[in-house]
Design a protein that fits this description.
CATH architecture of the largest domain: Orthogonal Bundle
Structural class: alpha/beta
Oligomer: single chain
Number of helices: 16
Strand content: 5-15%
Largest sheet: 5 strands, mixed
Radius of gyration: 28 Å
CATH class of the largest domain: Mainly Alpha
């Protein structure tokens, strides 16, 4: 009986193990780049970064068509089959536009928290990031870091002035990694409480960042009344106006009439202000033009028109 137990405990090496070298065994453990069908790759859940078929994307698609995807994406296998994209959403979109059926990817097993952190970090390296993208990215990464560390969620503690804790927190670590102050990270996260329509106005620079943070404390119905008023009056609140609305909301005294009266006040910096709707003039400029270039060209054309008009009057 004892002999049988000893014999059963001995693990015999397989034929592959006997004839494989240490180098081949190590190679089998290394991550490899595989060509994976695009149809088998799904997007990361609640991916906060927008993937648009804009001019930059079309240029990327042309590059993929000529040279292929030079930097492999990163995916993780799904329990029900297929793969989930962790890093490389823009490369996947460019591959689709280029007419490719597959995309080179590294396959890596990882849990939700590790995948979220890698997904956020890989996108935060981009040169241009919208406020909404940064807001949801910071929120997702901070929550993942807290879960990894076994810390409780502190969603209800996000504030304009941040939080003070006696020991190092996940938000302290995130601040060190991003180079943003902890208070600024919390201000960005507050933007996730805005209505999508108002958050889009922040991305379009129609509402300044700090007033938007204050607006995020308004209820959903109050924000909807505010959005409707901003659209009808073609204006947005200053920081002081947003702070007043936040205080009135907390006191239960904010309604659509109060919002209208606050927004239609004449602001010192809006006296003599002249507004032109963006959609009326954007079609005349190349997409690559900055706001400064647009302004310079408008002034240049007005000067030419003024000089011509003056010459005609002198005749």
């Amino acid at each position: 009986m004892a002999k049988n137990s000893v014999r059963d405990s001995i693990k015999l090496a397989s034929v592959d193990d006997l004839f494989s070298t240490e180098e081949s065994r190590e190679d089998s453990q290394r991550e490899k780049v595989l060509e994976i069908p695009l149809s088998e790759i799904s997007d990361f859940p609640n991916h906060p970064f927008k993937v648009k078929a804009d001019e930059a994307m079309l240029e990327m698609a042309d590059s993929v068509k000529q040279y292929g995807v030079l930097v492999p994406g990163l995916v993780r296998p799904k329990a029900d089959g297929g793969y989930e994209m962790v890093a490389g959403h823009r490369r996947k979109k460019a591959s689709e536009l280029a007419g490719c059926e597959t995309m080179p990817c590294i396959v890596r097993d990882m849990d939700d928290n590790a995948a979220t952190i890698i997904m956020v970090d890989s996108n935060l390296q981009r040169e241009s990031i919208l406020p909404s993208e940064k807001a949801f990215a910071y929120k997702m990464k901070l929550e993942a870091m807290k879960r990894q560390a076994g810390r409780p969620s502190m969603e209800d503690n996000y504030s304009q002035v941040g939080n003070n804790f006696s020991t190092k927190t996940s938000s302290d670590e995130l601040a060190m990694q991003t180079g943003e102050s902890k208070n600024q990270i919390f201000r960005y996260i507050r933007l996730t409480y805005l209505l999508p329509s108002i958050l889009e106005m922040v991305d379009e620079k129609q509402i300044a960042f700090n007033p938007a943070v204050e607006i995020s404390y308004l209820t959903e119905n109050e924000q909807q009344d505010l959005y409707t008023t901003m659209q009808s009056e073609e204006c947005s609140p200053s920081l002081s106006q947003a702070q007043r609305m936040k205080k009135l909301s907390q006191d239960g005294r904010l309604n659509v009439d109060v919002i209208f009266s606050i927004l239609t006040e004449e602001k010192p910096n809006q006296k003599e202000k002249f507004n032109i709707k963006r959609e009326r003039i954007d079609r005349f400029f190349p997409k690559s033009f900055s706001e400064k270039q647009k302004e310079d060209l408008i002034v240049q054309l007005l000067e030419s028109w003024y000089k011509k008009r003056k010459r005609d009057q002198e005749r």
